[in-house]
Amino acid sequence: MSATAPITQDVLTIRRAPQTGKRNLIGLTRPQLAAALREIGTPERQVKMRVGQVWQWLYHWGVRDFAAMTNLAKDYRALLAEHFAIDLPQVVSRQVSADGTRKYLLRIAGGHEVETVYIPEENRGTLCVSSQVGCTLTCSFCHTGTQKLVRNLDAAEIVGQLMVARDDLGEWPVPGAPKDETRLVSNLVLMGMGEPLYNFENVRDAMQVVMDGEGLTLSRRRITLSTSGVVPEIARTAQEIGCLLAVSFHATTDAVRDKLVPINKRWNIRALLDALREYPRLSNSERITFEYVMLKGVNDSDDDARRLVRLIAGIPAKINLIPFNEWPGAPYERSDWARIEAFADIVHKAGYASPIRTPRGEDIMAACGQLKSETERARKSRAEIAAEVAGGAGH
Ligand code: SF4
After folding, report:
1. Span from the CA of 117 to the centroid of ligand 1 (angstroms)
2. Which residues are marked as active site?
3. In whole angstroms, what is the distance from residue 311 CA to residue 273 CA?
4. Residue 142 falls inside a structural domain
């Protein structure tokens, strides 16, 4: 963290309707929205059209008030407002890094908090979305892993992260204004807090809303879901979501991966690679991303690099090398740059793209593996983390 880096922080509440106890329309898939409109008495012959109209207002124009849905009859708008709400997570804080990365601390139902990160590039950007408060798993290099799972996010809270970011970036189209093709949120990665495949149905429904071509319109090839290796749900991701897949791989032996990614004790490297070789959407144009955090003296040797390319042989893949991002109490150090480059070189010479991920937002704890919310923070001490790494705690 560079001490001189200017950090701006302001507390704002962005267009948030109060929690009403009414059913929230955000996050409902089209069939679920149709069922909800039927329940309030919408005539069957109108349901499809009404779904299309409401959908456009919510996800194309970003409207938060039923009264503004002007192509619907006044009394129907009143009926909608009587029964439904348009609720988004509340923005508790918004931090902006010296490199432009933005981190949002969001409050959701129950007062729990999650973090979402926006990483801008030239005329585009990536939103890193959370799927759980805390995490089911305890990867020892990951800050979120020190936060016990509180709960899964529902589809509204997952979709809501994208809508909050679009609010903040002013990315909703303005009626009558010339169409602007630039998408500031051009990519979405499910790499925030939580293991998305341990919240499969909510993540699937949320991505169906996000990928729909009449609203938020992020194509499936612009969405990457990262899993630590929930093997039984991997094929289902291809069949029911269809987005790109990334795997938190991070080690080349079971002995090391058991420590870094404890789910490996359930489905080890061989089981994971077998599932990836069977991945229904496997192709050269849709390569699987192997994420590999670079930990000094742990998993960064030349032997590791050579073993890695042997292990994934035959899988259309790219390897994202992630220089470890430190967090308070972390039991690891980042590999030296020369070591990272030497590792990348071996992987590259073996024929794999091996980009080294530029750490973004480190100064606001927004970089990969640094996310953690206040919720339940007290639950895990440094001693517990150290004990876990030393293999004291079995998971
Ligand atoms: S790396 Fe992912 S799965 Fe592992 S603890 Fe962190 S958030 Fe959870």
Report:
1. 15
2. 115, 368
3. 8
4. yes
pLDDT tens digits along 320-335: 999 999 988 899 999 9
- As a whole number of angstroms, the distance between CA 120 and CA 99 comes to 9
Domain that holds residue 317: 90-172+181-381
Pair of tokens at residue 249: 């791989």
Task: State whether 239 and 260 are in the same domain.
Answer: yes
Count of CB atoms situated within 10 Å of the CB of 182: 8
pTM: 0.89
Amino acid at 110: G
Establish whether residue 145 lines the binding site of ligand 1, counting it when its CB lies within 6 angstroms of any ligand atom.
yes
Q: pLDDT digits over 175-196, tens only?
A: 888 877 789 999 999 999 999 9
Determine whether the shortest distance from the Cβ of 370 to ligand 1 is under 6 A. no
Of 261, 193, 213, 203, which Cα lies nearest the Cα of 237? 203
Structure-block tokens of residue 175: 């009626």
- Pairing mode, strands 317-323 and 288-294: parallel
Helix (H) or strand (E) holding 104, with range, is strand 102-107
Residue 286 DSSP class: B
Sign of CA dihedral 264, 269, 273, 275: negative
